[in-house]
Design brief:
By secondary structure, the protein is mainly α. The chain contains ten helices and no strands.
Length: about 180
């Protein structure tokens, strides 16, 4: 669905910076979670592009210390905050969310923490979040980037950047 050239144009980077397995994982993710029409694909790609700085960041830049003992995230042990800080292209965060993802994909190594998810499942974890939050249903109503951003971010943080990525997606991703 999305080839190396299109991904590099959306991310605004040289194609040599993207590893072939990343393109495979992206397309597997799109297929697995039925992100399969242009509205769904464009919104998914524009949101993940923003959340990851154009594919540059697979883990949250902050230390994760702010998540320490956050029981709403399932973080109950010392070190859970940094261990289960945001990872993937839509930042999967918290022990409880990691556990749900681990159970869903049947990979217990997910519980090793953020670096494992970042290295092995950056798009897959984003697709899991997308599916879990019923984003395809929202995208099928042809929402604005603002509407999708509100659901992804809880606010409008980075809206102009997300809109820029949407324009790139619409320019370079032409078929589902």
């Amino acid at each position: 669905m999305i080839d190396l050239t299109a991904l590099s144009r959306v991310w605004e980077c040289d194609p040599s910076l993207i590893k072939p397995h990343e393109v495979v994982e992206l397309n597997d993710c799109l297929h697995k979670w039925d992100i399969n029409n242009l509205s769904r694909i464009h919104h998914f790609m524009s949101q993940t592009a923003h959340e990851s700085g154009g594919g540059r960041y697979k883990t949250e830049l902050a230390s994760g210390q702010a998540y320490e003992y956050r029981t709403d995230l399932g973080n109950f042990s010392k070190g859970d905050g940094p261990r289960f800080k945001g990872a993937g292209y839509i930042q999967l965060t918290g022990r409880a969310n990691y556990q749900r993802f681990s159970d869903y994909i049947k990979d217990p190594k997910v519980m090793e923490g953020c670096q494992y998810v970042a290295d092995n499942y950056p798009f897959t974890s984003a697709g899991f979040w997308w599916h879990d939050n019923r984003m395809n249903e929202l995208c099928d109503r042809h929402p604005s980037v603002r509407d999708v951003t509100l659901r992804v971010n809880g606010g409008t943080n980075g809206l102009a950047d997300r809109e820029k990525y949407m324009r790139l997606c619409q320019r370079y991703i032409l078929a589902a």
